[in-house]
Amino acid sequence: MLTTYPFSRCILIGVANAIDLADRFLPRLQSLNCKPMVITFRAYNVEQIIRILQERLMTLPHTVFQPQALELCARKVAAASGDMRKALCICRSAIEILEAELKESNDNLNSSPVVDAFFEQQTAPAPAPVVKKPEIDIVKIGHMAAALSKTYKSPVVDTVQCLPQHQQIILCSAVKLFRRKKKDSTVTELNKSYIDICKSTLIPPVGVFEFSSMCRVLSDQGLLKLGGQCRDEKSKRVTLNVDEADITFALQGIRFFRSCLQ
User: Fold this and answer.
1) What is the model's pLDDT at position 167?
2) CB 122, CB 179: distance < 8 Å
3) Does any domain span residue 218?
4) If you average pLDDT over residues 108-115, what whole number do you get?
5) What span, in angstroms and rounded, lies between the C-alpha atoms of 190 and 167?
6) Which residues form the Cdc6 C-terminal domain (predicted)?
7) Total H helices, total E strands in the chain
8) Of 66, 126, 133, 228, which residue is most buried, by most CB within 10 angstroms?
9) Co-location of 13 and 73 in the same domain
10) Which of the pair, 258 or 225, is modelled with greater confidence?
């Protein structure tokens, strides 16, 4: 009631996750002549999430995350909800996965009979030791992908992982092609990107007719979108019909595709 008094300087600020808070209480507030000013904070986008994560990590003396791992986390969270708290939780989970991996590797090393035999044979005086700075392990894309899989489970990911190899390469080609600020392209340009990946990985590409057929299959599955009324199949417009982060997440666990997507 303090805000209703004449010359009152009292300001009441309400914060809520629900965007209909003001609507639910508006009749009562209007009866008190206290109609609120509503400010809606939008969800974080990819660039904002990456910037916030990088600012938090700047206080550490060494690199903790691979840049591509942070980008994968930011893209997935921004596409799903834009909740910064979710991004922080996923990063923490990725660090825990890395810690568990390092602990397991150290345990295996300490219990290895080969290592024990090696040290038993070192009876002669050794030369002056060479001190080598240990490599600092960081969270890589594989760790982040495992952390994301614990948090999100998308049917798109399952679909992409079950595709034949050449259809997966087409999706990789589309991801690389549309990273260049393009919204869409033609089937011919997508075919060129596909052939470039096949040549760089020494995989024989399929013919143009089969390539167009596979694009139609991916379109039927909702992964690609083919547009236009062109009779010529090569001139049809094509774009991704799913989030790029889902494709990256689905294929990052395979070294072949991880190198293709870089």
Assistant:
1) 93
2) no
3) yes
4) 52
5) 12
6) 171-251
7) 12, 3
8) 66
9) no
10) 225
Pair (51, 101) in one structural domain: yes
Q: Please give the Cα distance from 124 to 173 (Å, whole number).
A: 57
Which residue would you say has higher pLDDT here, 124 or 213? 213
Beta strands in 92-179 (DSSP E): none
Answer yes or no: do 183 and 208 share one domain.
Answer: yes
* CATH code of residue 64: 1.10.8
Helix (H, G, I), strand (E, B) or coil at 139: strand
Q: According to the model, what pLDDT value does residue 37 have?
A: 79
The count of domains in the chain is: 3
Helix (H, G, I), strand (E, B) or coil at 119: helix
What is the average pLDDT value for the chain, to the nearest integer? 80
Coil, strand or helix: which one is 135?
coil
Quote the domain boundaries for residue 77.
46-111+136-151
126 part of a folded domain:
no
Quick one: CA torsion of 135, 141, 204, 184, rounded to 10 degrees?
A: -140
- pTM for the predicted model, two decimal places: 0.51
- Contact (CB, 8 A) for 242 and 223: yes
- What amino acid occupies position 194? Y
CA dihedral (226, 232, 234, 236) in degrees, to 10, reads -30
| Strand spans (E) along 107-171 | none
Asked if 172 and 223 touch (Cβ cutoff 8 Å), the reply is no
pLDDT at 249 over 80: no
Structure tokens at 245: 């982060």
21 and 100 inside one domain = no
Tell me if 130 is assigned to some domain: no
